[in-house]
Fold:
Amino acid sequence: MSSIINLEEVPVTPMKRDPAWKHVQMFKNGKKEQLKCIYCMKLFNGGGIYRVKEHLACRKGNGSICSLVPKDVRFHMQQSLEDSGTKNIKKGKKQKQQKQQKKQKIEEEVMPLVSNQVDENDEVVDARVGEGMSKNAAMKKRKKQKAEEEETMVSNQVFENHELVVAGEGMSINLVDAHVGEGMSKNAAIKKRKKQKAEEEETMVSNQVFENHELVVAGEGMSINLVDAHAGEGMSKNAATKKRKKQKAEEEETMVSNQVFENHELVVAGEGMSINVEMTKNSTPMHSTDIDADSEAVLAVEKNALGPKGFDNDIKTAIGQFLYYVGAPFDAVNSVYFKQMVEAISSRGSGFECPSQHELRGWVLKYSVEEMKNDVERCRLKWGRTGCSILVDQLTTEAGRVLLNFFACFPDGIICLKTFDSTEIFVPAKCYELIRQIVEEIGVGHVLQVITPGEELYAVAGKWLTDTFPTLFWSPSAAYCIDLIFEDFGNLEWISIVIEQARSITRFVYNCSAVLSMVRRYTLGNDIVDPAFSHSSTNFSTIKRFVDLKHKLQTMITSQEWMDCPYSKKAEGLEMLDILSDKVFWSSCQMVVRLTAPLLGVLRIATSELKPAMGYIYAGIYRAKEAIKKALVKREDYMVYWNIIHNRWERLWNHPLHAAGFYLNPKFFYSIHEDMQNEILSRLFDCIERLVPDTRIQDKIVKEITLYKTAAGDFGRKMAIRARNNLLPTEWWSTYGGGCPNLSRLSIRILSQTCSLPMYKRNQMSFEQKVNSGNFIVSQHLSDLAFVQHNLQLRQMLTSKEQNFSDPLSFNSIGMVEEWIRPSDLLFEENGSSYWMVLDPSVNSMLIRPSNDEAEELGEGFDDDEIFNYGK
Structure:
């Protein structure tokens, strides 16, 4: 780590377009640049971005592979490597072809020019100086070979009328179609044309100046009379040669803009030329209507030339218009089910028949309901070993109805069990009755705890529940309690001032597209507003984002681009400049981050679906208090914040399950140099007595705790010691706890539990329809639909392991960031200043991401007695 700290980080410029640049950090060590993977933090001393791409694609090559890269990034890097390989092959072939063409052109340019004689009427006579002259003979032979090659290349083409290519300046041309005789075959006509074209090219490179020419050109038996209007007698041979070469260059330039006609292909290069075409085969003149019809044909060809790209755009437009019509959120396309749908339809081909609404509300929904119920049954088989937690989530709809969603959470996933409308009878007794029914349906032996919101109503219901079922615990949601801590922090005067200053900037930026585009360019695609779990947590995650982007924002406001921007002269722009240049503002932001960043980490641990939080939540709160103490030093200063935490966390700080999870996590337990706090051991005994009713097994567990303390048996193996930091706590106990079977079984059940409900999308539509249906059959139908919908969303959340980065301007994030992006009272005068279509797409080259694993950053060492003993 010291080598990385000594390096100077430099931004990745937009000029670096390889997709792998989005997933690295660049450092400068003197004149040498080094790259670092943002997932596994591996530092690359050489090999460039290609080696990093191989690393991210997990392709064994010149370096190691990344074990932490998200699946979608790995797939994208693999596709990029394959595409670059294909491009290199095509590039090699193209370079080889260009080399051959260049060689052939050089040979033609050095070919001797041989036309030497001009008669008194300046009629061109092919002066072949003598049959015995080797140079001329070689030239003639090469011309003949070229004519034969061109004849072979065009032998499959059919010329209905004429092909004419003329180059000259100030030339008048009279074309008379000398129609090929009826007895002449098509092949003979082609041979004749190719021979004539070869003779024409031979004559065009001649060094002679011609006043009058008679030349036979490739066409279908066409003779052309050319009268030179400019080449006077006084023009020198070199001047005339240069003029013809210039004309030929102009001809070649014009030939690329060919017009396609129904019966003719005509390419003319030159200036001041008049053309009269008389055709004996078809004397009908060409009218403007014919040209219009041919122009439409050209447009049709150009449209078809778009190929697969244009076709894909049509498909994407059709998908977009359907989603707009049904009102689906834009991020619906990120769903794994959307991708499955597209792949299924494309694999079926054009014969696919769309399902009817009767099928979707009939056998398709029935099949999905049965599939979800089978999933629940498969989960029950695992609950005997790990147990599960019942989670209650309260949702208040826009119509004011109170809905209770019941979930079962366990290490392998989370499933929605039922949804109830409790609007009319939302009282502790009703809440207790609903939870009791769910516990009995699952089986009281499988349930270790019930987690609810923290309101007093749920606390009363939880107390009744633990009296009814003495083998389980009730607990308020850890995320709910942390959110209340953030709310109290935000009400402190100095912190609220900092938040309002930052909001004045974001309200200006996010309501002016030109400024927002500039900010995103300078921050490399990062938004300065960071949506989080709730309104309160969003306040502090956004302040942290400001600190992370401090130097980039200051670079922007001191740039010439910002000074030239008209919005920098507005009151909001001037205020933004003042705030971002204010040292007091930045020092206050940094202090806010020091006080709240550890709590944001605890919040991510509590709501994470990647690993059970029970073994980490106690250590997370310890670290949050420790960080506040180190930041403020003086006891009277940090006690203000400790009191807020204690007030909101009192019921959880000494919660038996949280303390037992800390005790049974080997990473933390063996890092304490002194004896474990008696209060924590006492909470572990509470768990043993409540969760293990059999007194004989209780006694065995107490004896086995001694082996755990002394790291006896397999606990003391070098493998087990190394694995304390590498394996999940449940895996560690499963692997090395064989000598303590009873303690191991209890440890796995405790460490498999969560502390909060993971964040998921709450869809109210089906509930509102159910309430307003007024019909039992329709209501039951909608209940099944809600059951399927919830579980599909939860399955998506668990199968998609990539981190979710929300756009503050997305419809799904508006609720969390409303106070940060709503327009200020002063309206913009210029029309279109907030028009979304002019927004530049985000660069997304160096997105700021949270740590891959907040739990692993909690570290070792828990020796501050003041933190443990506070609040006793």
Summary: The mean pLDDT is 75.
